[in-house]
Specification:
mainly alpha; about 75% helix; 2 domains; elongated; Tetracycline Repressor, domain 2; 9 helices; Arc Repressor Mutant, subunit A; about 200 residues
């Protein structure tokens, strides 16, 4: 039998866990099923990961690191908040369209965390909130912190909702059209806020 390094085995088990979780849910993804999927001894799973919980956390970290967050900004400095929001949201949905199994696994792990450790599931979302907000702040942001937080949460809700719809109906083209609609709605709001701020209007309640 060919030697497999610990790091290579760890990656095999992570990929196997993604497939099993997507197929059977986080609760149904036993360590034995994951080891069998990876064609690895069960003992090697427990060597690489302390337990199933640590493996599921590793799955979430792996998948969240793959989801595109950064945006390529024009070199002339003309990028606006609306532009960055549109690019970020579109990139995230395109990743979902291209990686349905990984999206399903991420949703399953997030729901597992919510059932078993609500604070952990909150931290999952906080990770995305912070990284997305950091991207948006690459451009001049005239919104208050709370308004920007709200825009990020809405954008994340759009990604969650459209990704879930995509998993249920499998209509990639419709998902991309709906993404364009959501972007247009967010851009309309942001443009209106910019006009209000330029005119000296206070934020709406």
């Amino acid at each position: 039998m060919a030697y497999v390094s610990a790091e290579a085995r760890r990656q095999q088990l992570l990929e196997a866990a993604v497939r099993v979780v997507a197929r059977e849910g986080a609760d149904g993804a036993t360590t034995r099923k994951i080891a069998d999927e990876a064609k690895a001894p069960l003992a090697s799973l427990h060597y690489c990961f302390q337990n199933k919980e640590s493996l599921l956390l590793a799955v979430f970290k792996q998948l969240s690191s793959e989801m595109p967050v950064g945006v390529d900004l024009p070199e002339d400095g003309s990028a606006t908040l609306s532009y960055v929001i549109e690019q970020s949201l579109t990139n995230a949905i395109r990743w979902s369209v291209d990686n349905p199994v990984r999206v399903r696994a991420m949703i399953e792990v997030t729901l597992w965390a919510e059932r078993n450790d609500p604070e952990l599931s909150v931290s999952f979302y906080d990770t995305f909130l912070r990284s997305t907000e950091a991207v948006l702040r690459q451009v001049d942001v005239s919104l208050s912190d709370e308004e920007l937080h709200s825009v990020v949460r809405v954008a994340m809700s759009v990604v969650d909702g459209l990704s879930l719809q995509l998993l249920t109906n499998g209509d990639k083209e419709r998902t991309l059209r709906d993404t364009a609609t959501a972007c247009a709605m967010l851009k309309s709001y942001l443009n209106e806020r910019e006009r209000n701020l330029s005119a000296g209007c206070s934020p709406t309640a």
